[in-house]
Every structure is written in C-alpha cells, then in structure tokens.
TrEMBL record:
PANTHER family: F-BOX DOMAIN-CONTAINING PROTEIN, F-BOX-CONTAINING HYPOTHETICAL PROTEIN C.ELEGANS. This is F-box domain-containing protein.
C-alpha cells in the first residue's frame, strides 16, 4: 500500500501527521522526483494507493487529477453497496474489476469494543480510518471469492450517509468524474437500501448503474424521483419489473438502459428525451414496431438519437418496407439512389460484430424530408435498432456502414 511504496517511516520522535506540508518531502521521497517521473509512477499504482497519495498535499492531489484528466478512459469505478444496514464504498480499476478496495462504514462504538488489535488510527477530515494488523501490514482484511479479491478498510463514522457521500465525492474529484455504480437488492427492504438511495441523492455523479436481484416498485419509483444521474442511468434486474414506471419523465442526457422491462409502453418511447435508449425484454409487439417505424418514415423526430428494443414477438423488416430486402451493393452508387423519393433509399444485408457475438442484420436507410437519415436494423427475430442521423451527415458514410450494436 501507500507506505510500502513511497513512504519513509519517520523516527519514533516524529509524528508524520504533525509535520508541516512543506517538510513532508522528507517523509515521502517520491515527491523529490520530477513531476513527470512522479506521474509515471502514479500511472502504475492501484486506485487505493493513488487515493492515499492524494492526501499528502494539494500538489499530489493535482498530480492525480492531471493523470486522469489526460487519460479519461482509465478512470476507476466507484461502487456503492450495502450488506444489510452497513454501507460500503469500493474502488476498482476498469481493467481489473475483480480486484477492489472497499471502505466499510461503522459506528464509533465498534471501534471501542470490536477492534482490539488495531495497529493505528488516523483521522482524515472527520472520518476515522483504521489499519488493522496483518502479515503484510497492508489491509484490514483480504478475501478471495469466485475469482474476486477484496481488500477492506473499516472507516468509523457517526454519520455513515454523510461520510459515504463525502468519500464518494472526494473519489470522483481526484479521479475526475469517475463512474459510480450502485448495487442494491431491491427485493429485500432494509435500511441499507434506504441509505443507498440517500447516497445517490447526495453524491453528484453523472452516471449510475443500479443492479438489483428482485425489483421493488417503491424503491424503483424513488430511484426515478431522486436519482442525480445527468448523463447515464442503468436499471438492471434479474427478474421482471411488472408495474408501469414513469421513465418518460427522466432527464438523462446520454444513455438510459432499462433491463427486464415489460412495463414499458409505446407512448413512453415517444416521450423519452435521451441520446441513447436501450430497452430489453419488453412486452412490445410487431404492431408497435410497425407504428414506430411508419411515424419515423413520415417525418416524426423523437427526443432520442438511437433506440435499441427487445420485442416480445418476432418482427420482420418486410412489414415496414415497400419491397423485399435486396442484396447490398458494393460499391454504393449514390447516383442510382433517388434521395427525394418517399420510398426507402437503400436496403442492406450485413453481419455486425461485437466483442462477443456476430449477428446477421437486415435493414434500410431512408433520407427524410428534413435531410436527416433514418436507419432501421433488425438484428434477430425480435430485436430492432433505430438510428436518426442528423441532417448534414455524410450519406455515403452512413450507407456504407449499418452501424454497431451497443447495449
């Protein structure tokens, strides 16, 4: 951990937490390096060591922020979860998600009665952090389960909700708007879930992923009413969400993902305002698909740019085109395409690859009256993906690429 990597243990007569910041270079020799060299070392540290390093001074704090400002794709993920009524925050590297560092909040009473073998106790802001004795003198606890390694620290606090928000906001600050994932078992009402909903309102994150085993309607409604996500919101469930939810009222800019969503109605899709919308395992049928595509062909402009829908029935592209699907021509000759025709401009057959799967896709492009381009792709018997390309988009570029699948 931090002291093992770059902290010189001071003499017994010196308390490192009372040394003025300008003298702490004597304790942290890494700070003697050139800033570029220090940044290179930081790049190969785990998220916990980076967080620890950020506590040293404003200068070290800035080095961490600069690192993630220059390489946003490597930001760690911040997880908020609850075991019973005990809140927990963890951080993990995107490229190694099965190794995480967890911060478990508890009351100060536990500090006195349940932690007799504490080696040190330090105060960071108003949060008490304990480091337990271990063979490596590194972590509170360490466990490996299902190929997952978890390192744990216990932070003692009198107000877990407040301090969880403080910690999450600090992690988002030093890691420059890191993603926040929230894990809840919504089928089991308990105070831990209530706390998590309060964290979500207090932590000003742009992206939230709620993962649940059994959906609870009251919790789901509270999520929709109080969530603070401005860019992305995902609601993932292992079981069906049955009752109707007001997803049309959500104000999420970039992406809305609702998994296992038979409650979704066609009229809600017409009112959604988000760049990308993904709706899986819905109860929508082919007649809804036909209605949606016909309105788009006629010129209706939705509040979203992309829509991915998993229908309950099989859907056919033949139901929304004027003639049977034709072979894709290569190369494409735009002179042969009548852009002003009310009919479909171009049809295609293609194979679309993802990291894990390959789909045979059929679809069409249509240049609409306002100059925008409608692309409808049927990926499997009951899955459709719809794009609205804005006016001014390169027609040849769109017609040459049916698009990628995104979930």
């Amino acid at each position: 951990m931090m002291h093992a990597l770059f902290c010189v243990r001071p003499s017994n007569k010196v308390d490192p937490f009372t040394v003025p910041i300008f003298d702490r270079r004597l304790i942290f020799p890494l700070m003697k390096l050139d800033p570029k060299a220090t940044t290179l070392v930081l790049k190969y540290m785990n998220p916990f060591d980076q967080m620890s390093f950020s506590f040293i001074s404003d200068e070290t704090n800035a080095l961490i922020r600069n690192l993630y400002g220059e390489d946003p794709g490597s930001k760690p993920i911040v997880n908020i979860k609850s075991y019973g009524e005990t809140p927990q925050v963890s951080i993990c590297n995107k490229f190694e998600p099965k190794v995480e560092w967890s911060f478990i909040f508890s009351s100060y009473v536990d500090l006195e009665y349940n932690a007799p073998d504490i080696e040190t106790k330090n105060r960071i802001g108003h949060i008490y952090m304990l480091t337990w004795k271990s063979e490596k003198n590194v972590v509170v606890g360490e466990r490996e389960e299902e190929n997952k390694v978890e390192h744990s620290l216990i932070w003692y606090s009198l107000d877990a909700v407040w301090d969880t928000a403080v910690l999450c906001n600090y992690l988002r600050y030093i890691f420059v708007d890191a993603e926040v994932h929230i894990n809840m078992d919504l089928g089991t009402p308990h105070k831990g879930n209530e706390h998590i909903l309060n964290y979500a309102a207090a932590v000003k994150a742009e992206k939230y992923i709620y993962s649940m085993k059994k959906p609870n309607d009251s919790y789901l409604r509270k999520i929709l009413e109080t969530h603070a996500a401005t860019k992305e919101l995902q609601l993932l469930s292992e079981e069906s969400m049955t009752k109707e939810l007001p997803i049309e009222k959500l104000n999420v800019a970039d992406k809305l993902f609702v998994g296992f969503a038979p409650f979704v109605k066609l009229w809600q899709i017409y009112h959604l305002k988000c760049k990308k919308v993904v709706l899986t395992l819905t109860n929508l049928k082919e007649l809804h698909f036909i209605k949606l595509v016909d309105d788009l062909k006629a010129g209706w402009t939705p509040g979203w740019n992309s829509l991915f829908v998993d229908f309950t029935d099989g859907i056919s592209l033949d139901s929304v085109i004027e003639q049977p699907i034709g072979e894709m021509k290569d190369p494409i000759n735009l002179e042969e395409i009548d852009m002003s025709s009310p009919k479909i401009s171009y049809q295609f057959k293609s194979a679309i690859k993802t990291r894990l799967l390959q789909f045979d896709a059929v679809g069409f492009h249509k240049v609409r009256k306002d100059g925008s381009i409608l692309t409808v792709t049927v990926l499997r018997p009951q899955v459709a993906q719809i794009f609205i390309h804005p006016a001014g988009t390169n027609v040849l570029e769109v017609f040459s690429d049916p698009g990628d699948i995104w979930f």
